[in-house]
UniProtKB/TrEMBL annotation:
Domain Fumarylacetoacetase-like C-terminal: 49-231
InterPro entries membership: Fumarylacetoacetase-like_C (IPR011234), Fumarylacetoacetase_C_sf (IPR036663)
Keyword line: Metal-binding
GO process terms (BP): oxaloacetate metabolic process
Superkingdom assignment: Eukaryota
One Gene Ontology term of the molecular function aspect: oxaloacetate tautomerase activity
Protein's recorded name: Fumarylacetoacetase-like C-terminal domain-containing protein
Cross-referenced Pfam families: FAA_hydrolase
Native source species: Podospora appendiculata
Key word Metal-binding present: yes
Protein family per UniProt: Belongs to the FAH family.
Length: 246
């Protein structure tokens, strides 16, 4: 297997996943001209041939990415130029008690509560734009949700059901994820953890279906509620200096 498995933007404008075919003697993936493309629904662990990873795959989102349950999904001009604006409904956990190197059987003791989130992504640019980590509609106490792995989760785009699954189908349980994240890294009260999305994302469709300006995205989690957010393409704006926080 090639060590370079990634997404590739092809000449047809679509993004495909597969193994890069490197020219002899070349190790720079940017110089790859061909790839062995994976077919099928690569986001469904039951229908794809991809091996389950040993550890959770992590993506970082800055605090400026946080958004609320009715906020718009702002899409800056740079992101408008690239294909791949996608929705991802996810179980969200908010840390309530600090932990470090916590074992799995104690991991959920450190959760303050749960929400539903939309982990907005654009496959060729990333996940960290302002307002692309929307969650809510509130935080339901972990005392009320005893088992976060039994909840139905869905996404609708303009009223059409596009994702429907259960948190029971997560490859890595929440307690396993928290235990992994806490190894050598302190998790602090207020940390927000998005946990991964089920099948049905736009990338997984054939051909892919991307979000566009004006689309209404609703993500819902059983016993938690719904976030409803509208995609809004930003107009170019002049640079501005942000005020320094004390």
């Amino acid at each position: 297997m090639s060590p370079f498995r990634s997404g590739f933007v092809a000449k047809d404008g679509f993004t495909y996943f597969g193994d890069a075919i490197m020219p002899r003697g070349v190790t720079d993936i940017a110089k790859a001209k061909q790839a062995r493309i994976l077919t099928g629904n690569i986001f469904d662990r039951y229908k794809s041939n991809m091996p389950i990873p040993r550890y959770p795959i992590l993506f970082y989102k800055p605090a400026t990415a946080l958004g609320g349950p009715t906020d718009p999904i702002p899409v800056p001009p740079l992101a408008q130029e690239a294909a791949g604006l996608d929705y991802e409904c996810e179980l969200v956990a908010i840390i309530g008690k600090a932990c470090l190197n916590v074992p799995e059987h104690r991991a959920l003791d450190h959760v303050f509560g749960y929400a539903v989130g939309n982990d907005v992504s654009i496959w060729s640019l990333g996940k960290g734009f302002d307002g692309w980590a929307l969650f809510g509609p509130g935080i339901v106490s972990s005392r009320l949700i005893k088992d976060p792995q039994t909840l139905k989760i869905t996404t609708r785009v303009n009223g059409e059901l596009v994702q429907e699954s259960s948190t029971a189908d997560m490859i890595f349980s929440l307690k396993k994820t928290i235990a992994f994240l806490s190894q050598g890294t302190s998790l602090l009260p207020g940390d927000v953890i998005f946990t991964g999305t089920p099948q049905g994302v736009g990338m997984g469709k054939s051909p892919p279906v991307w979000l566009k300006d004006g689309d209404i995205v609703q993500v819902e989690l059983e016993n938690v509620g719904t976030c409803t957010n509208r995609v809004e393409f930003d107009s170019p704006s002049p640079p501005r200096e942000l005020k320094k926080r004390d």
